[in-house]
Amino acid sequence: MSGNSGWKLTAFASKADVQAALLAHDDIEDWDFDLVVSGREVAEDRPLEWVLEGWFPTKPGTAQRKALKSLFAGKPPKIAIDELPDEDWLTLSQQGAPPIRAGLFHVHTPDFPPDDGAINFAIPASQAFGTGQHETTAGCLDMLGAMKASGAHHRAIADIGTGTGLLGFAAMALWPRAEATASDIDPVCAGVVEDNAQLNSVALGSGRGEMTMVIAEGMDDPLLQARGPYDLLIANILAGPLVELAPDFAAVVAPKGNVLLAGLLAGEQERAVRRAYRMAGFRLAARLQRGDWAILWFRRRHVR
Prior knowledge:
Elements: E1 7-14, H1 15-26, E2 36-43, E3 46-56, H2 62-70, E4 80-83, H3 89-94, E5 100-102, E6 105-108, E7 119-122, H4 135-149, E8 156-160, H5 166-174, E9 179-184, H6 188-199, E10 211-215, H7 222-226, E11 230-236, H8 239-252, E12 253-265, H9 268-279, E13 282-290, E14 293-300
Parallel strand pairs: 6-7, 8-9, 8-11, 9-10, 11-12
Antiparallel strand pairs: 1-3, 1-4, 2-3, 5-6, 12-14, 13-14
Helix pairs in contact: 1-6, 4-5, 8-9
């Protein structure tokens, strides 16, 4: 199709609705695969607002609009249709998710080959937040590598707000004998994590070298609390919840344990998070910045 114009169908909806639509798409065996579907955040600072995009080589008609609308369980959003410039429409549909290298890790969609010199994870492009494309996710991958290089040893890992499961998977790759627990407030993520675990040969279960997935708000889950204390807790969410969760995280992180936080902007948000974790008994071990976003590594002070 190179050199021919294509068309794009666009539907704006909530993160939960778009992710549910993507999962529905994956279950349709007779889908017209000329209609390429992907989903993403509208903007980095608006993580709950998503857009579902459909890419088609010719002007879409009623069938394509109906197919896209059918992916939404409730009342579907309005579908906008735009003609693309005279370029390769399939390349345009996929260029939002090129492979990324973040420290020890190479994150790519299943359409791209692995990197023999890295730890590889394949995450479908439709799962925008948590694919490694976002600066906070890539920064966390970098920081996990720094922890490993420092000699950190983790036996119990928690990934709060896991999304695609990527950061939990990455931690398990570095500490393969650890028990890992992943959680998210969004029920859609349970299926996403299960699919991605299968795609990346990550074992699900409750033993060493396995991940358990729960749906929970913050630490509000009996299993999530029972599997602590954690010597590594990862939370790539938003600054407000990070501040609110500081005492809850302190209650489940072992003395001298590590906490990796992201989803906060450098500046006032970072100052608020640092203050909250200092008051909760943590000290800053390292910091890095990706674009406007700060990634913070804290250690819990030893309790005497």
